Structure formats: C-alpha cells, structure tokens
C-alpha cells in the first residue's frame, strides 16, 4: 500500500509537469491553430535566463520573473518575425517551421550557454514530508508545481470564456477574414497568443528544471509527453490539458513502478494510439463533426 501511495503521489507531481507543457500547446493552438513543436527549446532558453541571474547572485524569484518575461518577449518575436511570414493557406508549413526552430534554438543555446549540465535550484524543499516514521512522497516544490499549474488553468479558462480579448483571440484563430471584418486586430491577437503560450511554456521549463540539471536538451523528452497529454485531454481544452497530464503522469508512474521504467515510452505511445482510435478529438473535446 505504501508503494502504491508513493507511486501515485509521484505520478501526480509528474502529471502536473506534463500538464504545464500541455497548457502551452493548448494555448497556442486555441490562439493560432498551430502546434508549436519549438515550445520546448523556447522554454529551455528562458530557463537559462533564470539560471544566469541566479548564478550571478540574484534571488530565485527575480530569475523566475525574468524567465516569464523573456518568454513573453520571445513568443511575440517568433510570431511577429518568423511565423507571420509563412503562407497562411498551408496548415503544414507553420508546423515544419516550428520543427526548424526547434533545431536552431537548440544550437543557439549550446553556443551561448554551453552544453554542460548545470544544477538548477528549487525555491522549496525537495524532501518528502515526514509523518511519524513514514515519508510522504510529496515535496514542497511538488506542491508549488501543483498550485502553479492549477492557477494557470483557472486564468486561461477565465481569459477565453469571460474576456473580450480571449474571444478575439479565438475568433482570429478560427477565421481571420471574418475577425478582421468585425474589427478585430488579428495580427495583435496572434502575437498575443504566441506570447502568452511562451509564458506558460517558460513556467513549465522552470517547474521541470527545479532541483534538477539543465542542459540544452533537458526539455526534449517533455515535449513528447506534453503533446500526448494535450491530445489526450483535447487541444481545445485547458482543463483537458490538466486532466490529460494527470492521467498520463499517473499511468506512466504506475507503469514505471510496477512494470518497468523501460516501458514508459511504449506506454505513452499506447495511450496516444488508444485515444486517437476511440476519441480523436480528445477526452474533453466539445467540437463535434457536422453532418450534412
């Protein structure tokens, strides 16, 4: 029973990490209808911004804020000077471009920050809480991770459901011409969507790096699991992204704890295939196909 409890708590924290990255993918999909595979190296770069400041002697929270701000700026610049010039009539070209950005940003990080492993601090404890003679596998940083992701999903739901800006962003993503006729400044909305997605991606990078090692490829594995979590919950649903991350994190933690860690990637692939076969739109998708 103790092993099961520990495995579930580990999966909960891991699932929230996947959910944070999935939220970034969902946000940019809802705002621009693009799957951004460059989200991982963008988050990696902003994490290095925080690390440089922390290593220079500044506080963790100053580095944290600087990483989020740099993510906001980086996302806006990528949309304004790269994505915007791709042929909008093609759905595949922007995706291919984000894969190219993935490679370019990796190389840039290695040149600027180096390829060696560097320790990244955590603002809270990394040891589980002690209850009597039992150590609970939930750390202070794990609680911070859970609360951060829940706060982000609440803010995103409020943004898209109850604000004019959220409605304009969704209108710009679905039909730019109609949105322009209604007076929406589509270019600004698309830039804002990329900027906000990069902020959420930066948060995921900070949560993943906390208490671990940072190097130019430290986010590469997360992009796979984050994408699976986003598809599992539904690319249009922030709540679904969190649920998908939790389902994936708990499932993979159980597989790792009771079957074998070498089967984790295979289990993630099996979950993705099952969802695509049974419910292609995701478990929390609300859009249904129209029949004529």
TrEMBL record:
GO molecular function, one term: transmembrane transporter activity
Mode of membrane association: Multi-pass membrane protein
Compartment annotation: Cell membrane
CDD domains linked: TM_PBP1_LivH_like (cd06582)
Chief place where the protein resides: membrane
BP term (GO), one: amino acid transport
Transmembrane intervals: 6-27, 34-54, 60-83, 95-115, 135-160, 190-211, 266-285
Family: Belongs to the binding-protein-dependent transport system permease family. LivHM subfamily.
Protein name: Branched-chain amino acid ABC transporter permease
Upper classification of the organism: Bacteria, Bacillati, Actinomycetota, Actinomycetes, Pseudonocardiales
């Amino acid at each position: 029973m103790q092993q099961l409890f520990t495995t579930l708590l580990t999966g909960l924290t891991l699932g929230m990490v996947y959910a944070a990255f999935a939220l970034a993918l969902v946000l940019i999909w809802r705002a621009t209808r693009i799957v951004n595979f460059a989200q991982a190296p963008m988050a990696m770069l902003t994490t290095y911004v925080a690390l440089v400041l922390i290593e220079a002697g500044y506080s963790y929270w100053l580095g944290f804020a600087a990483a989020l701000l740099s993510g906001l700026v980086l996302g806006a610049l990528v949309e304004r000077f790269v994505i915007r010039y791709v042929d909008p009539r093609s759905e595949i070209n922007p995706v291919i471009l984000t894969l190219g950005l993935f490679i370019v940003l990796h190389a840039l990080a290695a040149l600027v920050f180096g390829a060696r492993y560097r320790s990244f601090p955590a603002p809270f404890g990394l040891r589980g809480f002690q209850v009597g003679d039992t150590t609970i596998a939930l750390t202070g940083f794990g609680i911070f991770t859970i609360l951060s992701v829940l706060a982000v999903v609440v803010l995103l739901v409020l943004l898209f459901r109850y604000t004019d800006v959220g409605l304009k962003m969704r209108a710009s993503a679905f039909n730019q011409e109609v949105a322009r006729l209604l007076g929406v400044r589509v270019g600004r909305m698309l830039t804002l969507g990329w900027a906000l997605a990069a902020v959420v991606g930066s948060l995921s990078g900070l949560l993943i790096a906390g208490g671990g090692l940072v190097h130019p490829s430290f986010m590469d594995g997360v992009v796979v699991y984050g994408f699976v979590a986003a598809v599992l919950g539904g690319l249009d649903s922030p709540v679904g992204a969190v649920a998908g991350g939790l389902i994936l994190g708990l499932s993979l933690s159980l597989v790792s704890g009771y079957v074998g860690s070498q089967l984790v990637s295979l289990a993630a692939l099996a979950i993705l295939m099952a969802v695509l076969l049974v419910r292609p739109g995701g478990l929390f998708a609300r859009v249904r196909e129209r029949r004529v």
